[in-house]
């Protein structure tokens, strides 16, 4: 083994909370790597315990169980080097959470000898709560009064120095130490490392792979500019994990880059497997190849579709769900949920239920039946008007309370009842991100369900995904009349009627008259995306040219636009109490509702600057 090493990348599906299951997978992969005469077999960060465990990290008994498997893996390392992530406990001290002191560590086992390194950077943003539970190397260096440089050291295996870092250690742009950028890979290179191995557990998100590659490119370029010619191996896991409120996918896509930043290998997305690569440690490159972003909107929509299907499949598998019941209203959201569930668990296990009242048109009822036929799912019509009328007489309901009552009958009574008659069945919440942020749902009605598959997709994204599926399937899975009122394009057949999105809970929502939801989806989606994904305040939005131009398109006067903007800001805040009681969502954006985008129940606030801007704009009407 001179200049080339044979690497086995163990892109495992880590099962959170099941260390014995994960150990057996690792054991099986190690056996295969030995048979293939590999020098190294590498596994992801926290490959034994799982990564997103919330406060399970505070249970000492669980930590001891995970620690037990570290030694068991070391015993497997005769004739091979095993690199893997696990929790490292300090049984003599307490940590940041007041419990057993813990480190997020990477272990290197070779011929029964075990060494480790500690994660330098512990994230504390979005869904990441690592600093609550783990002591970082940066913090530890302060505790023992030693420079980080003294604690970061390569491992010498067969006369080759191996540098190992952990996940966030390659996302370094926001981390400083002694007023300088802290790059663990650079410290390891300075100490003679001939290869950098990054073990990771990195959740999926739209364009997340682009962000990962951008950060890896940054690391490689820093090393190149300092005169180091070092390849980088990045390992990620697959599967789904959750923090209670949000389901996060781990998409794999482990990657190997040469010293010049060229991609040598990438593992498949979502696929568990052991992948082999012969890596030459001597770089012949004379120029660093800057990586360029290549956006593909069609590819992104297909990626979202696959992520949602994988999420539903994993949700069903881990909870032993065999059948899924869907309220099939005749709208685009429920149609898309039905499609995704069909792909995830099979059409014979999906049950579409249409529950019309006197307010539901023949149009939407026929569309619901058409979608069920297209998908070949089980379909049943259960009218609710007799139940609704009985309650109207008993409680004297009218107006909005009457509308909410209909939604409650559909979910709490009909869908829950149907699910109870089936084996291992649940029903879904079909809400999208736009409507959840507006609070445009009934809390104990359509806001209920075991899972909300579309909870991280805005309404326009739902329509765009439906378009892509129709194109890819080569047939009209989703009737074009459902898509036409939300987005436009050449893909809409000429002469298509527009079936407006509508709850159909009163005569004020009569789709035959074009009456539907009080939301302008192409406009409001952009506003909400600014507030959620981009951390904008209403004072930022009022100055944004994109929003102002959309305002001119959809509102007759500036006053009308400002009135709607403030009403949206108010609803956005008032709806929080409903959002926090919504079902878990499949998180696919860079800021999903729940324990990613965390919100307190607070009244809307208009800043002084916004009020001045509003006065100035209003004056110029």
From TrEMBL:
Residues 5-281 form the CN hydrolase domain. It holds the Pfam family NAD_synthase. Coiled coil: none annotated. It is an enzyme of class 6 (ligase). GO terms for biological process: NAD+ biosynthetic process. Keywords: ATP-binding, Ligase, NAD, Nucleotide-binding. The keyword Acetylation does not apply. It catalyses: deamido-NAD(+) + L-glutamine + ATP + H2O = L-glutamate + AMP + diphosphate + NAD(+) + H(+). GO terms for molecular function: ATP binding; glutaminase activity; NAD+ synthase (glutamine-hydrolyzing) activity. InterPro entries: C-N_Hydrolase, C-N_Hydrolase_sf, Gln-dep_NAD_synthase, NAD/GMP_synthase, NAD_synthase, Rossmann-like_a/b/a_fold. This is Glutamine-dependent NAD(+) synthetase. It comes from Candidatus Gottesmanbacteria bacterium RIFCSPHIGHO2_01_FULL_42_12.
């Amino acid at each position: 083994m001179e200049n080339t090493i044979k690497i086995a990348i163990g892109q495992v599906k880590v099962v959170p909370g099941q260390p014995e299951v994960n150990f057996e997978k690792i054991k099986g992969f190690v056996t295969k790597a030995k048979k293939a005469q590999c020098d190294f077999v590498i596994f992801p960060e926290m490959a034994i315990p799982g990564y997103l465990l919330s406060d399970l990290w505070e249970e000492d008994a669980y930590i001891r169980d995970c620690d037990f498997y570290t030694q068991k893996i070391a015993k497997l390392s005769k004739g091979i080097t095993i690199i893997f992530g696990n929790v490292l406990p300090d049984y003599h001290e307490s940590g940041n959470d007041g419990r057993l002191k813990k480190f997020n560590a990477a272990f290197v086992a070779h011929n029964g000898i075990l060494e480790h390194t500690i994660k330098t950077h512990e994230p504390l943003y979005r869904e990441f709560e690592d600093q609550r539970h783990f002591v970082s190397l940066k913090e530890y260096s302060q505790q023992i009064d030693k420079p980080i440089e003294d604690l970061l050291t390569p491992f010498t295996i067969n006369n080759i120095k191996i540098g190992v870092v952990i996940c966030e250690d390659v996302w370094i742009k926001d981390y400083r130490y002694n007023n300088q950028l802290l790059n663990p890979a650079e410290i390891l290179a300075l100490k003679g490392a001939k290869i950098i191995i990054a073990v990771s557990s990195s959740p999926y998100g739209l364009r997340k792979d682009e962000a990962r590659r951008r950060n890896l490119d940054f690391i490689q370029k820093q090393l190149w500019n300092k005169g180091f010619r070092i390849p980088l191996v990045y390992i990620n896991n697959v599967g789904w994990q959750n923090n209670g409120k949000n389901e996060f996918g781990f998409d794999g896509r482990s990657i190997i880059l040469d010293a010049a930043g060229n991609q040598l290998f990438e593992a498949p997305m979502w696929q568990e497997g052991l992948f082999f690569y012969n890596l030459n440690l001597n770089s012949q490159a004379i120029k660093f190849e800057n990586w360029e972003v290549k956006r593909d909107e069609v590819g992104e929509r297909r990626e979202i579709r696959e992520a949602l299907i994988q999420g539903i499949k994993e949700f069903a598998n881990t909870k032993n769900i065999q059948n899924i019941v869907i309220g099939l209203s005749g709208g685009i959201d429920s149609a898309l949920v039905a499609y995704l569930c069909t792909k995830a668990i099979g059409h014979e296990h999906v049950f579409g239920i249409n529950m019309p009242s006197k307010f539901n048109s023949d149009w939407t009822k026929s569309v619901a039946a058409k979608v069920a036929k297209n998908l070949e799912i089980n379909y049943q019509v259960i009218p609710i008007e007799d139940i609704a009328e009985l309650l109207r007489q008993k409680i004297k309901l009218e107006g909005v309370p009457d509308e909410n009552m209909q939604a409650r009958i559909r979910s709490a009574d009909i869908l829950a009842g149907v699910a109870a008659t089936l084996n291992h069945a649940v029903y879904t919440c079909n809400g999208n991100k736009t409507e959840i942020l507006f609070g445009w749902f009934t809390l104990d009605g359509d806001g209920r369900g075991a899972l909300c598959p579309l909870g991280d997709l805005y309404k326009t994204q739902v329509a765009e995904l439906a378009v892509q599926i129709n194109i890819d399937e080569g047939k009209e899975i989703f009737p074009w009349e459902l898509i036409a009122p939300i987005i436009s394009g050449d893909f809409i057949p000429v002469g298509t009627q527009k079936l407006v999105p509508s709850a159909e809970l009163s005569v004020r929502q009569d789709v035959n008259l074009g009456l539907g939801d009080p939301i302008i989806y192409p406009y409001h989606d952009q506003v909400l995306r600014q507030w959620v994904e981009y951390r904008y305040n209403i004072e930022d939005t009022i100055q944004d040219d994109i929003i102002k131009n959309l305002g001119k398109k959809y509102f007759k006067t500036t006053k009308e636009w400002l009135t709607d903007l403030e009403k949206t800001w108010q609803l956005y805040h008032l709806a929080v109490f409903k959002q926090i009681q919504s079902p878990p969502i499949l998180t696919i954006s860079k800021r999903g509702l729940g324990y990613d985008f965390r919100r307190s129940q607070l009244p809307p606030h208009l800043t002084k600057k916004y009020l001045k801007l509003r006065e100035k704009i209003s004056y110029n009407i």
